[in-house]
C-alpha cells in the first residue's frame, strides 16, 4: 500500500470514529455565537419609584377630591395623594410659611395671585379648573327667609358667612351684600366661619338662622335648603385656580395629577357635586 492510500485510509477511519462518537467540527468562535440570546421578557421590569403628593385644596372640594383621589391612585399605583383641606387663605399662609405642598387648589384667584407674586408657584402650570355659585341657605325646617334682603329683618339675628379676611366664600358674600347696599345693616349679625364647611355647620345646627355658602356645599347637606341662588353679577367670578408649587420635589407626578383632573372621569365627578368644569 503506497503512502497516499495509507493517508486516505486513516482519514476514513477518523471520520467514521467521530461520526460514531458525535464529534463537532465547529470552531469555538461559532459555538459561542450560536448560544441562545435571552429574550426581552426575561429582563426584569424597572420598578417605579413610589411618590407622595401633598395637595392643599379649598374645603369645598372635600367630597369631589375624596372620590377622585382613589381613582387617580388606581391609574397611578406608585403615587399616593395626601389631601389637605382648609380655607384658601389659611392654605396660602401655610405655603408662604414653608409647608411642603406639591399642588394648590384655591377657591379664588386672590390667594393664587399672592403666591404668584412671591414666585411660589410655577406660573405656566396655573389654570382655572372649576367654577361655582353662591347661595343663601337656611335650616331645612325654616321658611321665613327667601332672599338676601330678608337678612335685614329683626327676626334674623345670626348670619353665617366665611371670615372675609381669609375665606373666599366670605369675600364673595361681602361683595354681594355691598353691591345690594345691605352690608352695613347686617354686618353686626355675622357669625364668622373659618371655612365654608364651618359656615354650613352653623346653619345646620341652628347656631345661625341663615348663611351664605357655595352651591356645592349646600348640596352635601339635608339639614339646610337653598332659598336663593345669588346673582353672579353681584360678586367676582367664583373660580378655582390650580398650580404646582415651585418647591415641589415631585413635579412630573404633580403635572400628571393636574392632567388627570381635566380628564373626563374627573370632570364627571366634579359635575356630580355641582361644580362647573372649565
UniProtKB/TrEMBL annotation:
Residues 1-21 form the signal peptide. Gene3D superfamilies: Periplasmic binding protein-like II (3.40.190.10). Keywords: Metal-binding, Molybdenum, Signal. CDD domains: PBP2_YvgL_like. One of its GO terms (molecular function) is tungstate binding. Pfam families: SBP_bac_11. SUPFAM superfamilies: Periplasmic binding protein-like II. Molybdate binds at residues 60, 88, 196, 214. GO terms for biological process: molybdate ion transport. Belongs to the bacterial solute-binding protein ModA family. NCBIfam families: modA. PANTHER family: MOLYBDATE-BINDING PERIPLASMIC PROTEIN, SULFATE-BINDING PROTEIN. This is Molybdate ABC transporter substrate-binding protein. It comes from Pseudanabaena frigida.
Amino acid at each position: 500500500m503506497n503512502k497516499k492510500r495509507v493517508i486516505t485510509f486513516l482519514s476514513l477511519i477518523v471520520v467514521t470514529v467521530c461520526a460514531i462518537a458525535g464529534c463537532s467540527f465547529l470552531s469555538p468562535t461559532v459555538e459561542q455565537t450560536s448560544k441562545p440570546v435571552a429574550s426581552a421578557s426575561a429582563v426584569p421590569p424597572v420598578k417605579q419609584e413610589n411618590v407622595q403628593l401633598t395637595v392643599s385644596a379649598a374645603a369645598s372640594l372635600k367630597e369631589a377630591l375624596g372620590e377622585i383621589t382613589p381613582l387617580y391612585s388606581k391609574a397611578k399605583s406608585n403615587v399616593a395623594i395626601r389631601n389637605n383641606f382648609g380655607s384658601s387663605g389659611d392654605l396660602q399662609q401655610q405655603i408662604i410659611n414653608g409647608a411642603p405642598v406639591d399642588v394648590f387648589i384655591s377657591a379664588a384667584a386672590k390667594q393664587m395671585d399672592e403666591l404668584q407674586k412671591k414666585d411660589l408657584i410655577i406660573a405656566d402650570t396655573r389654570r382655572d379648573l372649576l367654577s361655582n355659585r353662591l347661595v343663601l341657605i337656611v335650616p331645612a325646617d325654616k321658611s321665613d327667609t327667601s332672599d338676601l334682603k330678608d337678612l335685614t329683618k329683626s327676626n334674623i339675628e345670626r348670619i353665617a358667612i366665611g371670615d372675609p379676611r381669609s375665606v373666599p366664600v366670605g369675600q364673595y358674600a361681602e361683595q354681594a351684600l355691598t353691591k345690594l347696599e345691605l352690608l352695613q345693616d347686617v354686618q353686626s349679625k355675622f357669625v364668622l366661619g373659618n371655612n365654608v364647611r364651618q359656615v354650613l355647620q352653623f346653619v345646620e345646627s341652628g347656631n345661625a338662622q341663615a348663611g351664605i355658602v357655595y352651591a356645592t356645599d349646600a348640596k352635601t347637606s339635608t339639614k339646610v335648603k337653598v332659598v336663593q341662588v345669588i346673582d353672579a353679577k353681584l360678586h367676582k367670578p367664583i373660580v378655582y385656580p390650580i398650580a404646582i408649587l415651585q418647591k415641589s420635589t415631585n413635579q412630573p407626578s404633580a403635572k400628571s395629577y393636574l392632567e388627570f383632573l381635566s380628564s373626563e372621569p374627573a370632570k364627571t365627578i366634579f359635575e356630580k357635586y355641582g361644580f362647573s368644569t372649565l
